[in-house]
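A further point concerns the way the authors explain their paired sequence and structure data. An entry of this sort, consisting of the sequence and the corresponding backbone structure tokens, reads as follows:
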Amino acid sequence: MSVVSIEDRISSVALKGAGWNMGAYVSSSPLHCHAFYLNDYRTGEIALLTIGQDVFAEVAGAKNPQRTSAAVAELMRLYRKRCDDAKYLSSLGFAVTEYIKGTRTFGMWKEKSSPDARGHFCLNFYGAGKKTSVRPFALAADERTPVIDALEVVQKSRQVKNMDAAQHPEWFR
């Protein structure tokens, strides 16, 4: 059995064990990735996206995260129709990486983390029509945790959404 097939099996078991029904997982092992949990309250889609640490390191942060957030929101809106398209997933992964690296959320996480730490970030998408707000936040995870349990992600995402609805009702109009 090759190293790749062993890692594929470990990835599959880890994802299923954490409640993520990923089908044929097509990324590098979550053991060597940053994890992004995308919760789109506009469409009801929840997605897990992993970006290899080596690829993540090569992407520069957005100089204008507001503009990049609009691109991420538009790509996420297409998720249901395009989630099996490798080129689409690559574009979404690049946009998410560029966006998160330009945010204060990432800056604060980076200050507190070791250089080789794997990040776990959630992006909540709010709004209607063309007006969308993207709300990033970091999730705490044990370094040995490949991905955070799906139910825990949904719970944390809802907590942040409820807090945001109280503090920023304009994001939901």
About this structure: The chain has one domain: 3-172. Confidence is low (pLDDT under 50) at residues 1-6.
